[in-house]
C-alpha cells in the first residue's frame, strides 16, 4: 500500500514561516524570481523595473500560500521550506506567462531596434540562440552563465554593460566569465561542425 504524502496545510505553514530567517530568505526568493523573469521569460527591463516586477510576483505568491491557502506543501516532494516556496514561484510565473503574453512582452521590451529587416534572419538568429542555450545547458552552464550569454546574444557585449544589466560586481562577472568562456568556445566549435 502506497504511503500518503506528507502535506503541510496553510495553518501549519503560517506557524513554520514564523521560524524562518525572512531577511535571508527574501533575498534568495527575489534573486530566483529575477533570474527566472530574465532567463526563462526573456523580460528585458532596467534593474529597478525588474526588481519591482519580481516583488509583485513574490507578493502574489505569498498571498496564494498564506492568505488564500490554495497551495499546500508536500514536504516529501520539497524537503525544505525554501524549496517549496521556489516551486510555487516557478508555478506562478509559468501560469502568469502564457505563450501569447510572452510573445507580446518580448516584442515590446526589445523594440524595433533589435529586430532584423529580414524575417528569415530573425528565425535563424532565434534558432541559433536556442541551440546555443541548449548546448550550454547540456554542458552544465549555471543560471549566471546563461544570463551573461543571453546579454551577449542580445547585443550587450561590453563587460561593464553586462555587469550593469545584471547588477553584478566585477569579481562576480570575472568568475562567471572564467567558467563560461571555455563553454562558449565549445558551442562555437559544435555549431561550426554541425554546419
Can you characterise this structure?
- With 195 residues, this protein is mostly helical.
- The chain folds into two domains: 7-104, no CATH class; 116-194, Orthogonal Bundle (Arc Repressor Mutant, subunit A), CATH 1.10.10.
- The chain has helices at 10-17, 22-40, 47-68, 81-96, 99-110, 119-138, 143-153, 159-166, 170-194, and strands at 7-8, 73-74.
- A two-stranded antiparallel ribbon has the order 1-2.
- The model is unreliable at 99-118 (pLDDT under 50).
What's the quick description here?
With 195 residues, the protein is an all-alpha fold.
Q: How are the SSEs placed, and which strands pair?
A:
Blueprint: E1 7-8, H1 10-17, H2 22-40, H3 47-68, E2 73-74, H4 81-96, H5 99-110, H6 119-138, H7 143-153, H8 159-166, H9 170-194
Antiparallel strand pairs: 1-2
Helix pairs in contact: 2-3, 2-4, 3-4, 6-7, 6-9, 7-9
Amino acid at each position: 500500500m502506497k504511503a500518503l504524502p506528507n502535506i503541510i496545510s496553510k495553518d501549519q505553514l503560517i506557524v513554520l514561516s514564523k521560524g524562518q530567517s525572512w531577511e535571508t530568505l527574501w533575498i534568495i526568493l527575489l534573486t530566483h524570481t529575477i533570474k527566472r523573469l530574465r532567463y526563462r521569460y526573456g523580460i528585458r527591463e532596467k534593474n529597478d523595473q525588474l526588481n519591482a516586477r519580481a516583488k509583485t510576483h513574490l507578493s502574489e505568491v505569498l498571498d496564494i500560500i498564506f492568505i488564500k491557502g490554495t497551495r499546500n506543501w508536500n514536504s516529501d516532494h520539497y524537503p525544505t521550506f525554501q524549496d517549496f516556496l521556489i516551486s510555487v514561484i516557478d508555478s506562478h510565473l509559468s501560469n502568469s506567462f502564457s505563450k501569447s503574453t510572452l510573445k507580446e512582452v518580448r516584442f515590446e521590451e526589445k523594440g524595433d531596434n533589435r529586430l532584423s529587416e529580414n524575417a528569415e534572419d530573425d528565425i535563424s538568429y532565434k534558432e541559433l540562440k536556442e541551440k546555443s542555450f541548449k548546448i550550454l545547458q547540456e554542458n552544465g552552464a549555471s543560471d549566471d552563465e546563461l544570463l551573461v550569454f543571453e546579454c551577449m546574444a542580445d547585443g550587450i557585449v561590453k563587460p561593464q554593460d553586462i555587469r550593469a544589466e545584471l547588477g553584478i560586481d566585477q569579481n562576480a562577472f570575472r568568475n562567471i566569465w572564467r567558467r563560461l568562456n571555455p563553454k562558449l568556445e565549445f558551442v562555437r566549435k559544435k555549431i561550426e561542425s554541425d554546419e
